[in-house]
Fold this protein.
Amino acid sequence: MVVGFIGSYIFPNLLGIMELLFYMLCLFLFTDFLLLYASKGTINGERLVPDKLSNGDQNPILIHISNSYLFLVSLRLLDELPHQFQKRDFEIRANLKKGEHKKFKYQLRPTERGGYTFGNLNVFVCTPLGLLARKYTFNAAHEVPVYPSFLQLRKYDLMAFSNKLFDFGLKKIRRIGHTMEFEQIKEYVQGDDIRNINWKATAKKSQLMVNQFQDEKSQPIYSVIDKGRVMKMPFDALSLLDYAINATLVLSNIAIKKQDKAGMFTFSNTIENRVVAERRSAQMNLILETLYNVNTNFAESDFSRLYVDIKRNINQRSLILLYTNFETLDALHRQLPYLQAIAKYHLLVVVFFQNTELQEFAAQKAASAHQIFERTIAEKFVYEKKLIVNELRKYGIQSLLTKPEDLTINTINRYLEIKARGLL
């Protein structure tokens, strides 16, 4: 339009055409303005967010938009996401017919626990003319807490007593020995173990009777989380601490479903966030709320204080799953006397992590002497993790070396294996 008016100075015959186009543009703009602001129609919008978000998981967010205009409109939705996601260009574009209602769904994956504040929901509306846009702002600002991965908890909850656990990588362990609790005497049916025949009851009843056993119950299961600086290392945007927290939540739930007592506490230079192992109905909610507030304090972890606290406060033999991380043999040897002392009275499983990024780096081909040197050092650290496993085994301490993303499955596997073999 501007170019046309400038050109009319050179070609005077264009001036009349440009004036006509200008008046038509003004007419269209006025019509567009009336359609957007003077008509009775409007746009209604609402954002639906869960009461809490699950850390490390994809959480669904819904937006409901309805059009009460008497014509088709084009929408541009700008949702003000929490600053933790660092998304300032998030938008959704769509068309809505007259009287139409639409639902828009997107996913958010938080990687930190805490409060996440959503801002307003902004909707820019255009008529079919598309010359103007009217902004609708819906005051949807509110804060949503991000808890440890309760979606993982629900995922494994219904599978705890079914064979579906095996579909997700959990192993079926052959039971060794008879370390179960006696439950009842019942009539023999085909398939019962003949070694469990109760001959006295058989003589009295004049028919075969067998002893029926069940897994030992009410065994204390403690998840102990190291929240020192070694657990701050990130993998796939989540810290090792968050992986340990998510695994603790799921394992505690399965332990309670298996009639065991679940408890937890954290340590670094002090012992904190203690939840005594119990099997009460409110235990899982207590553990969830406690894990919500666990954060790394960047201090050096004091394993001597951990040993003293366990000796003082845990009197019954318990399964202790210790989530920590050792990168070198020297780091292990400094803490080994305390681990041995704990393992003397309890069944200790030291859970630590493979450095998957370092493994991928070590597997790459080297093209120069400098790269050969770097990959040699990387392979040394990867191999040292395996040496740590062997060193713990040499002193009779169980260990679990796992990828961060496989921590939950592998931890449940180890718990079920210990229960099946009656090691506790």
